[in-house]
Design brief:
heterodimer, A: mainly beta, 6-stranded mixed β-sheet, 12 strands, B: mainly beta, 7-stranded mixed β-sheet
Chain lengths: 115, 114
């Protein structure tokens, strides 16, 4: 069974600082990788996803993530955060090639951005 | 984007009663929906996969007789927590699959059992 680990529970940054949220997974086969974001009072939304091809994936709102297969990692980055990026971020993995396969989520990282 | 709703958003019930939570895909049809449970400061844990017109597939450790799932149409799945107890208090979230790759999540239902 797959598992996902997010290293930081709570990250606090000032506006314009750079962001990197760690995500490591354990699964021996092909995986699909996701980052979801949950803004305060709202539901989970897809930020970006990786299935195959270029390991550097660009998502919405200036976020990107890099899949490093050798490290079993899929870290989320943003060069310059904004106050509106304050939210909880979840990394998720799905066994590749599985239609409608289940998602396994990490513990989540709360990001607080101070203006 | 695709919208998924849940009703109710919040429910408080007495121990021993049953509670039904609805999950609807508002602008698309979903043959597959998922039910998750989220404990405070923890991740979402998949409870079951709900397939339209067939029995749900439950994850290991989830009591199927406790958490009844019905997916009667392509836009509606329901989760019924039977004989609820305080330990069932949690945040329940559903998602609906659009195509093969993407799940859209509902806003969640906060259940409190007294």
């Amino acid at each position: 069974a797959q598992s996902v680990s997010q290293h930081n529970h709570h990250v606090i940054l000032s506006e314009a600082a750079s962001l990197e949220l760690g995500c490591n997974y354990s699964y021996g086969g092909t995986v699909n990788l996701f980052w979801y974001v949950q803004y305060p009072g709202q539901h989970l939304q897809l930020l970006l996803k990786y299935f195959s091809g270029d390991p550097l994936v660009k998502g919405i709102r200036g976020f990107e993530a890099e899949f490093i297969k050798s490290k079993f990692s899929f870290n989320l980055r943003k060069p310059s955060v904004q106050w509106s990026d304050t939210a909880e971020y979840f990394c998720a993995v799905r066994a590749g090639g599985t239609s409608y396969g289940k998602l396994t989520f990490g513990q989540g990282t709360i990001l607080t951005v101070h203006p | 984007g695709a919208v998924v709703s849940q009703h109710p958003s919040r429910v408080i019930c007495k121990s021993g009663t049953s509670v039904k939570i609805e999950c609807r895909s508002l602008d698309f049809q979903a043959t597959t929906m998922f039910w998750y449970r989220q404990f405070p400061k923890q991740s979402l844990m998949l409870m079951a996969t709900s397939n339209e017109g067939s029995k749900a597939t439950y994850e290991q450790g989830v009591e199927k007789d406790k958490f009844l799932i019905n997916h009667a149409s392509l836009t509606l799945s329901t989760l019924t927590v039977t004989s609820a107890h305080p330990e069932d208090s949690s945040f329940y979230i559903c998602s609906a699959a659009l195509g093969v790759d993407t799940q859209y999540f509902g806003p969640g239902t906060r259940l409190t059992v007294l």
